[in-house]
Structure prediction request, 667 residues.
Amino acid sequence: MGREQERAVLDLMLSGAAQAPFVAYLHGPGGIGKSSLVRYAARQAELAGRRVVHVDGRFLETDPRRLEEAAAPACSEPGTVLLIDTFEQCQPLETWLRETFLPRLADQAIVVVAGRVAPDAEWSLDPGWAQLFTALPVRPLDPAESDALLAARGVPAEQRGAFVAFAGGSPLALSLAASVPPAAPGAPWYPAGDTLTTLVERLVGDLPSALHRRALEVVAQAYVTREPLLRAVLGDEDTNTVFTWLRQLPYIEVTPEGLHPHDAVRATLEADLRWRDPERCDDIRARISLAGLQAVRSATADDALLRVAEWMFLFRDHDRPDNLYDHRKHPHIEDTPLRPEDVPAVLRMAEAAEGPASAAAVAHWLRRQPDAFRVHRYTGSTTPVSFMAILRLDAPLPEDRAEDPVIAAVWDLVETAAPLGPGEHLGIRRFAVQPGGHQQPSPLMELISRRTIAEEMRTQQRAVTFTVFEDADRWGRYLAEAGMPQVAAVDVGGLRQHVFGRDWRRQTVEQWVQNRARTALTPLATWPATAPARGPDDQLPRAAFEEGVLEALRTWHTPRAFATSALLHSHLVTPGSPDPAADLRGAITTALDAIQTDPAGVKAHEALTATYITAPRTHRAAARRLGVPYGTYRRHLALAKERLTEQLLRQSATTPTPTPPHQLPRE
Prediction:
């Protein structure tokens, strides 16, 4: 599947054309498809009536006599095709092969070498070899080729996206992933233990020591790895030697920015570590996150946004198509200070996106704090295409309150709940305006987010911070997961502006970046969340409530996600509760106990508990635990979900019920 360019070179060599190379050297990481191309060359050679001599480098033990013996027919029979696979296992023979053995091959013989290590430069520097040799780097399949491979393996179209995202274009990873069915029909696919073990063995191979494995685990988590990052995470334990070793690996790309692993290797190592040792995985992520904070703080102003983008890579979400942020660079957009000639365009954009009342507030802050504004424009153009403003406020001023209702509401909040101390100030990302797709995820919104995060990471003496979004439904969940709940909603000229906030005095930036990286921790909301007003008879729509129940069960053991449940704003949680997540757990636990009123209810309780609360890895494992056939288990589970939903709809808000220790995730 794919590989047209590589196959074309091999076909040209087999045709005997005068311009064809004598030696083709295929190189790339394990599982990328080199051996498949070697087998293709063998089949085509046999169809052409040529003698094929296949040598496996794993059995040569770097002894030239063994290679000479195995490849002897190629020295005596004209037109022989010599294929040397897994050449990395006998790489020390490369110079001998080029200078001593290959010149002795029979007329019209051709050679295909395949290995993980790229050929040395002498092949191209030697004038005698330059015209006879070609290096063929075997690269990952593109998404279309990956999809076609999965289709050929019979994988349904709706499942291919998860496989393609995980495999990173590796044919081996795609094939192994396709061989593992999902836990249940329609359930999302995740790589399991056996698949991961095989992939690590095939893609990565044997590692010299535990230190080398830990170094690879860092590379798998970080967007780019430099030696200072490795030292920050691993300590001074021979970091220089390990970094040099990493640079030489065939599945590590060395770039001016640092080291990047092949996508399939990254995904495999990351998933394998989380499966084997989730606590160590979180610890590595927390250390990388803290090192990322230090990198942002020590960067120049020009590099700070790039360092933030690298830090944000830790929080990418492979499984969500509506991921709000993209860790990649956007070199076609410039983030610049406000220029005097930008003011008319900024005001026009504000009015077009948010109306005249918001434009009036922008005009006020353009006069008061012009340095707070950043303007974005496409490279080579002077025309502003979006803008933002991060205000720094030390004290409430009457004119600020009068001109900007959002700032008036923010000062009311601060004075009531979190008064500023001597030398402290508040920060607020007040405006984020892009006409057209206002506040929708885009490269422009990513730059705005990066600038906001960089400001928070680099600013001293900031006591509290706020950010304002019009689209609370889109951004609220992400901000809640980051520990920044909604604290106010303000009407500005008929447009609802939602304010999200945090108090850095309750959780420092250093603590936040580490907790943010630990997937098993519930985010610490450092400001009392403002729940939407709710009357005694208000309920979520039935469909939203049912989906909320299923999502709460699925995220029972992932507190960060559970803490953003839609059910937190349902009748199951008392308004103003100091711990709404605990209340919701108590309500669900109470409902689970309450459905055990008859034999069917007991089976429903067992199915839900075995599937979600005691958390086996798959639905089939839950069926085995219950001792029932898989089909029977699925029927019990479907009925159990309906029964639990009905019970929760009837149930009133409850005080959290003590839950057996095995049912609660560790915080």
User: Anything to note?
Assistant: The chain has 30 helices and 14 strands. The chain has a mean pLDDT of 84. The two ends are 46 Å apart (CA to CA). Residues 542-663 form one domain.
